From TrEMBL:
It is a multi-pass membrane protein. One of its GO terms (biological process) is iron ion transmembrane transport. InterPro entries: NRAMP_fam. PANTHER family: SOLUTE CARRIER PROTEIN FAMILY 11 MEMBER, TRANSPORTER PROTEIN. Keywords: Membrane, Transmembrane, Transmembrane helix. The chain crosses the membrane at residues 42-60, 81-103, 115-136, 148-166, 186-206, 227-254, 274-300, 312-329, 335-358, 370-393. The lineage of its organism: Bacteria, Bacillati, Bacillota, Bacilli, Bacillales. One of its GO terms (cellular component) is plasma membrane. One of its GO terms (molecular function) is manganese ion transmembrane transporter activity. It holds the Pfam family Nramp. It is found in: Membrane. This is Divalent metal cation transporter. It comes from Planococcus rifietoensis.
């Protein structure tokens, strides 16, 4: 009886850890910057962008996590089963995107420590990188990563709620414009989806479940709940931050273009708010460093027994390289917006592969993927492909003007 109870608690911990790993991987410096910049531009109508992105996020993530769980394989191996060589292409895209994002994550950690302690961003980034490396040095790295993501996830949300309350946002207007917006920004939708479930992010929790052995039909209900919970955590943070920014800009206050998120916290709650921003930025950044490194390496570790054997050292190397690159060249806000949108372009490829795999017996056995989920997924693939193409032709060039 005690063993059964212990097993249930372990499973619950793993599922919660996977959810928070994915959510905190999404909530990074780019997440904070994107939400702030788009809210300042679209005002209350940004609520519509958030709503559409949540719907797309849930459809994409529930499909991907279920197929990973039922096959018991990581995404790159599933892709290679669908079409030999495709897994290597997918892994390349994810790892490059993950590395680019991780440079921004390391930079965000440095900025957070600079706000909190007054030390240089480079020194703060280096110390934060060492902390992230330390997580993968411990024997139970997976468990340490799960707990780390959960604790800092709760801290980020709680502190941002305080700032939102002090900002006194026009909630009624936000609700109304969420359903009847003044304008619809396709670039913003692609960027938000890319920053939440694009690139490596949606696979963070899915691959964590593989490592923990949470696979097979019997775990599908828990896996589905965990995938939705993960989107829920990230979405709650997005909505809270949106309302905080809306409250500030609705008062006619101007944000600092060099650091929009920091100015929101400072304008809403003074010096206390500025220090809170430091904590939130650091927590968002360092958890994303851990998630990006873990997930990016998980996309290549299965390609060779040597890579599998030394995957922890590869993860550590990934973090070290990201830290060195930031200390050498820095991170502009432009890159965070750009990489978020490019990650959104990876999503239709990854999801499309997963949907094909869901109907191949050699991958999923006798499992029958729900028809409504397949249709939902196909609609997302088509919509994100069209919006991604539109963004390539119109949205991204605007960033360079």
């Amino acid at each position: 009886m005690n063993n059964v109870k212990k097993m249930k608690n372990t499973n619950r911990s793993v599922l919660l850890g996977a959810a928070f790993l994915m959510a905190t991987s999404a909530i990074g410096p780019g997440f904070l910057t994107q939400t702030t910049v788009f809210t300042e531009t679209l005002l209350a109508s940004f609520g519509f962008v958030i709503l559409i992105s949540i719907i797309i996020d849930i459809g994409a993530q529930t499909n991907i996590w279920r197929i990973i769980a039922i096959s018991g394989k990581r995404a790159q191996d599933i892709a290679n089963d669908v079409l030999p060589g495709l897994g290597y292409v997918l892994a390349f895209l994810v790892v490059i995107g993950g590395l680019a994002f991780n440079i921004g994550n390391i930079a965000g950690a440095g900025l957070g420590t600079n706000v909190l302690f007054g030390i240089s961003p480079e020194l703060g980034a280096g110390l934060s990188g060492l902390l992230a490396v330390g997580i993968f040095m411990v024997k139970e790295a997976g468990r340490a990563m799960d707990r780390f993501a959960q604790i800092l996830g709760f801290v980020m949300i709680a502190l941002t709620v305080y700032v939102m309350i002090t900002a006194q946002p026009p909630i009624g207007e936000a609700v109304a414009k969420t359903f009847v917006p003044d304008t619809i920004d396709i670039f913003a939708i692609v960027t938000l989806v890319g920053g939440t479930v694009g690139g490596y992010i949606t696979f963070a929790g899915g691959h964590r479940l593989i490592d923990a052995g949470m696979t097979g039909k019997r775990h599908l209900p828990q896996v589905t709940r965990s995938s939705i919970y993960a989107i829920g955590v990230a979405s709650i943070m997005r909505v809270i931050l949106f309302l905080a920014v809306l409250g500030v800009v609705s008062q006619g206050l101007a944000l600092d273009p060099s650091n929009p998120p920091a100015s929101v916290f400072q304008l809403a709650a003074g010096n206390v708010g500025y220090k809170i921003f430091g904590v939130v930025m650091w927590a968002a950044a360092v958890t994303s460093v851990v998630g990006a490194a873990y997930t990016s390496v998980s996309f290549i570790r299965s390609f060779s027994p040597v890579l599998e054997k030394y995957h922890r050292y590869l993860t550590i190397g990934f973090i070290v390289i990201s830290t060195i690159v930031f200390i050498s060249i820095g991170r502009p806000v432009l890159i965070l917006l750009l990489v978020g949108s490019l990650n959104g372009l990876i999503l239709p490829i990854a999801l499309g592969v997963m949907l094909i795999a869901a109907h191949k017996k050699k991958i999923v056995g006798d499992y029958k993927h729900p028809l409504w989920m397949t249709i939902f997924g196909v609609v997302i693939v088509i919509a994100m492909s069209w919006m991604g193409g539109y963004t390539l032709l119109n949205g991204i060039p605007q960033l360079f003007k």
